[in-house]
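Q: Start with the shorter request: fold the first protein.
A: Done. Sequence, then structure:
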Amino acid sequence: RPIGYFVVAPFANATLRCMKYGQWLDIIKALSVRRPVVVVGNSSLRLPDMDMSAGEFSQAVAQIGGGVFNAVDSTTIRVLMALISRSFCLVGLDSAPLYMAQAVGTPAISIWGTHAPAARIGYDKNYMDLAIWRTDSCQFSPCFAYGKFPESKCPNGIRQTCCEVLGSVTVDDVLKKVDMVETANAQLGKFEA
């Protein structure tokens, strides 16, 4: 992987597994200081509106510039696999691109909310080490919610729009995991810093 770029996959089909798009914009901007960033996804899927719509998010990504490439709605599965396989690292949610990264052996920083990462990637220590799961932000985590927020458990009850665990993820959380990938790759001599 001599090409040093990040692939960021911010979309998931369910509100329960989505992070606010404003958080993603902050993460993308921080990552772009280190390496180019390719943002991928398909906005024609059933995507929830978080703090903005997926379309507004895509427009905001396109306006960042400075090494940020908006590939939302412009990559086939085959191209997405190629982008992921040649990337320095993927940053994404519990969604298809994470498992594509695993399939091709690309390091992946995964961000988790209602589900425990061990339930889905626990068989692979390398991917577990790169998982971000802020269980300290919700006493009921993991709630393994499917379909809708467990209103009796969520801090905002019926008004819950984003999982507290996902909402508590910071840019620093992501950058610490990026540092882990950079350290591991430097030791193996795989990537240019």
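Q: Next, the second protein, separately.
A: Sequence, then structure:
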Amino acid sequence: MIYTVTLNPSIDYIVEVDHFQLDHLNRIDRESKFPGGKGINVSRVLNTIDVPSKALGFLGGFTGGFIQDTLENEGVQTDFVKVKDDSRINIKLKTGEETELNGQGPALTAENIEELNSKLEALQEGDILVLAGSIPPSLPNTFYSELTQKFSARGVKVVVDAGGKILAEVLKDKPFLVKPNHHELSELFGTKITTVEEVIPYGKKVVEMGAQNVIVSMAGDGALLFTNGEVYTATIPKGKVLNSVGAGDSLVAGFIGTYAKEQDFVKAFQTAVATGSATAFSQDLATKEKIDSLMNQVVITKL
């Protein structure tokens, strides 16, 4: 079973204003609302490709109710901890350019955290645990590292999709997969990485630091997979980018969903890149039809 954890879910409120003016009344031309959060995105895409998962994390208030109802209506299994305050709303304002206003989210109590830990005790050897996104101020920065250490020792495959200090901290605990983009990789090593050739030595260093598998995404320049001592590159399909939200999460979902079914890292990598691209070329997350239409454009090469 695949379990995803989203510590600070949101409603992603997408607002499009064709002629936006500061200090004026602006009328919205188009709007949409989706349940947001990196782990939730992973569960939604897994559901799209017919791979079951269970979404965990913290939800509260009328906003939390919207998130849970939407997920359950889509067929996503949930087991969230209910908290006192409202889950946050993140506003994505599209005006030719994109501006994001992200809410803070609810404060978490010791009882909330204990309840989540209790739910995670259901994980068994062979399960996959996805830890994705930022860690709220109510939790220690070592929260992902502690979970990775605990569950990796039990034979659970732990996937961590986070950057900065969280990524640096978790590597020593030997996660099954990490997915930094080239900017996060640059931050990790205090350098500037802009080309595929520059990624390779640093991707190998991430493996040396403890990660079992590493995917480095480079937006339109492709992606690289480091696995079992080998390095693979993938081409990116051609298309118009409509959506910057959730492409990386979709890539993670495509990878772990395919790996869980087929145990094939290279096939999982190809599906991952097609799935991430399908989301980038859509208004919401990827559909199965869109993913399938892009698969043949993703060419995997072993370096």
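Q: Describe the second briefly.
A: The mean pLDDT is 91. The radius of gyration is 19 Å.
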